[in-house]
Amino acid sequence: MKIRTLFAATATLAALAAWPVASQSTADFPTKAMTYIIPFDAGGESDISARFQQSVWKKYTGQDVIIQYQPGAGGAQAWSQLNDIAGDGYTIMGINLPHTILQPMEGNVGYTTDDLTPVNYFHYTPNAILVPADSEFKTLQDLIDYAKSNPGMVTFAGSGSKSANNLAQAQFDAAAGTTTTYVPFSGTGPSITAVLGKQTTAGFNYATSAIAQGDALRILAVAAEERMPAFPDVPTFKELGLDLVGGAYRGVAVPASTPEDLRQRISDIVSEINADPDFVKKMEDGGFVLTDFTYDKMPEFIARMKEEYATSAKALGIGQ
Amino acid sequence: MELLGYFLDALTPLNLALALVGVVLGTVIGALPGLSATMAVAVLVPFTFSMDPASGLIALGAIYTGAIYGGAFAAILVNTPGTPSSIATTFDGYPMARRGDGGLAVTLATLASVCGGIVGALALLFLAPPLARVALAFGPPEYFWLAIFGLTLIAALSVGNTLKGLIGACLGLLLSMVGVAVVGGDVRLTGGLPAFLGGIDVVSALIGLYCVPVILDLVATRAAHLKVELDDRGYRLREAFGIAWASKFNVARSSVIGTVVGILPGAGGSIAGLVSYTEARRASTRSANFGKGEPDGVIATEAANNATVGGGFIPTLVLGIPGTPPDAIILGALLVQGIKIGPQLFTSEANIVYTFIYGLLIATILMLPAGLLIGRYAYRSIIAFPKSLLVPTIAFLTVVGSFAINSNVLDVQMMFVLGIVGWVLNRYGFQPSPIVLGLVLGQIAEQGFVQTYLIGNATGNLLGMYFGRPISIGIILAALLSLGYPFYAEWRMKKKPRQPLTEIAMQAESHPVRTDRAPQDGPRTTDRGALIAGAAFVALGAVALANTTGLSPMGSVFPRAISILLILLSAGLMVLSVTGRGVRASPPEAAETSRRRLLLGAVFGLWVFVMPYLGFAVTGLAAFLGMMVIAEHDSTSRLVWLRRVLIALGVVGLFWLLMARVLLLRMPAGLYF
Fold first, then answer.
1. For residues A155 and B459, is the Cβ–Cβ distance under 8 A?
2. Which of A46, B322, B580, B626 could form a disulfide with B328 if both were Cys (CB 3.0 to 4.6 A apart)?
């Protein structure tokens, strides 16, 4: 009980300390460097896109942003502590989908989807089917035909179980009427290595991974709305008649105690950076697809994604 | 000739300065357990945005290689791997330091690291594109067998005590499975606590299992931490060169192993060190001395782990697939600079790549003078520090290190708990190393095994996948060889007259560390300690086994197998202990020593559990002062105490600044700061 009282006292003190900041005009926010927590290890897509933002952050806010890492439990470690941070707008955190919807479905991870306050989902990395350059499968149809006549024989390397890649593979099986085998690896790097080394038939990975490989890999299709600037010759699943759009979405979240006007302001900063020509070029060259899910569109976006993941989650046996 | 031009580019004053500063900074950070190469590189990435790409890369590469090398200091001087890459350095480095050869061990580690680093960098310079294929040839079965090969080291590490070694390995393997499984995505062995979802951090476990027992033993006795010879023989460079030259094949073999393992994404320096240690032990004529302070053990590990730096850059630069975690960050830094990674990099951006490789090479060579000086200083500080400062400083570093990994207090608490458990188990004859091996290799073994099964099952070629691939067969043979060789060596030894020991090895024989076990041929009474431990492990195995029900088949096969194995082995231990066989625990100690130990443990425990509520700096300082008093065996004047209090303030303040302001970690604030 004592500890609880201590906590309450600290929280009150923190709230008092934050008060003057919150009451300041949001027009001149920020007036000091901001902290941007990435809930993953350095070097992943979340980190790289944040680093791209960091390189132009000062141009739009007049202040620096400091990137810190708090990895653990696939992001859950940091997200479960997000609301303990002071809501003065100076600490923001990277947030990802499907992670923040699937993890709470799976069991007690210390937070629920609705505990978190994303203010802007600014990009996603579409899923894509990759094969080695000299693979016998030239088109997606080749692969589907083979998978239909050899149920289970097609193996897909992907990053993690019950992940964006795994969801995509389940959705693909449902849409194309095939049975394939998903082989989870401990990250994008190892799974791309497996594809390049022909350990598996193909890979269900993010399109970003194909950028570095140049001619060594062929993309059969990407799960984007329209063709990606980085791969103008690669068809989308939609073009090929499969309704498959998605990947991992990444955004920025704030503690729940952050006032409305600051949430809006931070969302605006992220949107402004999303329009920076330099930033756009780096992101698109890297295979990231920019999105525009700003704070006002957030409730609708999250509701839609929840619904979308619910069906495929069932196929993967999540939340039962 | 073009290559020569790039070499000159790397020699600009700025690049040389970056290489030197990087190596020094990296060495210091690597020497502090828990502060890893990954962290140092991540913090410095933003500074390189404004540099020209090659210079930025040189700075990052220099820090990286320095940090991998610096890990040896903590391993040798306080028995705690500064980074996971130097786990195997503790096996022989610490015994060497205990018997007064710490300076020699540091010098040897430096020479070996420089040699290994150069081999790795040369491979990167001349052979990168063809060697990158190695990464692709290694599939899930090869990773599985590589992990098994690493586990065979347990047999060697627990000679005469194999049963307890195997039980320890099972414990480590079970620990490695805590949290969300990569394959299958099941939540395992967390006891329903969200805190365990992320699993048990290897580094915090390393710090706990290796370092906490050292602290507890330090405080218990009046004896000095390390034996110091009256005539301090300095660097002992000539002697070290002699030993290294005599072991040139060991250096070469370990460097090559390190380079190749570095190329494999997801394997890393810890495995490189363990594999080359195993190989060095097998190939050595003095294999019985390994683990007791054999210089070849230090040489093998350190040559291999620094070779992984160059090796790891090969898939990073050629394939765009990071070989190690720091490589992943460097890859990100390159992307931010707008440089396209991949096969075309070596031609399109040749000036950047080759300037960087030369810079890395130069940084590696600079490690020799820089490392010797820093190592000398570290060694002298460790032997010059009075116990009442050494104990709290090391304890403080364990907390700093285990916190720094993920900015998470839970890791600190886990470190402490594992440390206490490790100390108790050690008293009953369970060494920490098999547990650590299980923990480090468990995930790789499990993922490789399940992935192989999935692929083999899908393609209808299960046996072929596990046993039919050429590289797999090679690794299996090597594993069998390293398991069987000790028996062969023993048999051959009996037939031939004993080989004369080197001077160092003779010292190792005459100053064995931790062989204070009760004689084997005492009266055959029930060994109650082992009986209790066995019963506890049977219960633990049963709990783990019960936990596997309801998991997906993918997620349950490994934990189920391991917990059944643990139950069987522990039952065997119980049978042996009833009949009075097996290795016994050391006898209970005097009341005075155990009182200090208990007190220190209590202060330590209070510290790590109160920290999130009261704040890092306040609790750190209080615990530091408390431990200072506990660790002092003599009465000392007030002036001395005053000086020590000032030092305490300095140490705590310095690290708080380093963590909060330089490394930008999220500190537990609590009530104070």
1. yes
2. B322
pLDDT tens-digit profile of B464-495? 999 999 999 999 998 898 887 767 766 776 66
- For residue A181, the cross-strand partners are A155
Half-sphere exposure of A61 (CA within 13 A, CB side): 26
Residue in the block written with tokens 């009986």: B531
Please name the amino acid found at residue B633: H
d(CA B359, CA B363): 6
Q: Does some domain include residue A235?
A: no
Radius of gyration of chain A (CA): 21
Contacts (Cβ under 8 Å, ≥6 apart) of A26: A261, A262, A264, A265
What is the DSSP code (8-state) at residue B158? T
Give the ipTM: 0.84
Chain A from 146 to 185: CB within 8 A of any B CB: 152-155, 160-163, 166, 181-185
> Does residue A107 sit in the same domain as residue A254?
yes
Alpha-carbon Rg for chain B, nearest whole angstrom, is 24
Continuous segment of H or E residues that includes residue A221 = strand A217-222
Does A129 lie in the same domain as A84? no
Domain span holding position A144: 125-222
Please name the residue of chain A whose CA is at the shortest distance from the CA of residue B320: A212
Give A-chain residues touching B552 at CB under 8 angstroms.
Answer: 317
Residues 6+ apart with CB under 8 A from A211: A230, A285, A286, A287, B320, B340, B342
Predicted confidence (pLDDT) per residue in B46-89, tens digit: 788 788 888 999 999 999 999 999 999 999 998 888 888 889 99
Confirm if B619 and B610 have CB atoms less than 8 A apart.
yes
Residues 6+ apart with CB under 8 A from B189: B174, B177, B178, B179, B196, B544, B547, B559
Q: What is the pTM of this model?
A: 0.87
Residue A241 inside a domain? The answer is no
Put simply, whether A87 touches B (Cβ < 8 Å) is: no
- Residues contacting residue A181 through CB under 8 Å, at least 6 positions apart: A152, A153, A154, A155, A156, B454, B455, B457, B458
In a domain, A229, yes or no: no
Total domain count, chain A: 2
Clarify whether residues A95 and A145 are in a common domain: no
